[in-house]
Specification:
The chain has a domain of 93 residues. It is built from 2 helices and no strands. By secondary structure, the chain is mainly alpha-helical.
């Protein structure tokens, strides 16, 4: 037999084997229709799962954004509180320096007063000695 005739016979046998006739199943579809429906169903299922995964990813991204926003807000509050504490400590330190400066100035005044008094006593004695020397 020729190769063309053998190919034709093989094609006919393949058609009969694969069943290009309607099956006796309950929905009245043939094998090709059943295969097409299975492919359509699988595609629809994959599309639905993709939509669900995209929605889940979107929700996760939104939640991550909210978490980041809350973390930034909390960090900002922490910085404000730290700045307030630092300002309070600076004011306290300034008040302490002012008090210590005032005390030091008082000490200098008293020291100057004592030095002036001692100088005055010394001058007074020198004056007395001059008077006695002049008599």
């Amino acid at each position: 037999m020729k190769a063309t005739t053998i190919s034709s016979i093989m094609l006919a046998v393949a058609v009969l084997v694969t069943g290009c006739h309607k099956a006796e199943n309950k929905d009245g579809m043939g094998p090709a229709q059943s295969a097409g429906k299975a492919i359509d169903d699988a595609g629809a299922k994959a599309a639905a799962e993709s939509k669900e995964a995209a929605a889940n990813a979107n929700a996760a991204a939104q939640q991550a954004g909210e978490n980041a926003k809350e973390a930034a807000h909390q960090a900002n509050e922490n910085v404000k509180a730290a700045a307030d504490r630092a300002g309070d400590k600076m004011q306290q330190a300034g008040a302490e320096v002012k008090q210590e400066s005032h005390e030091a100035a008082q000490n200098v005044k008293e020291g100057a007063k004592d030095a002036t008094a001692a100088t005055g006593r010394g001058l007074e004695r020198a004056g007395e000695k001059m008077q006695q020397a002049g008599k």
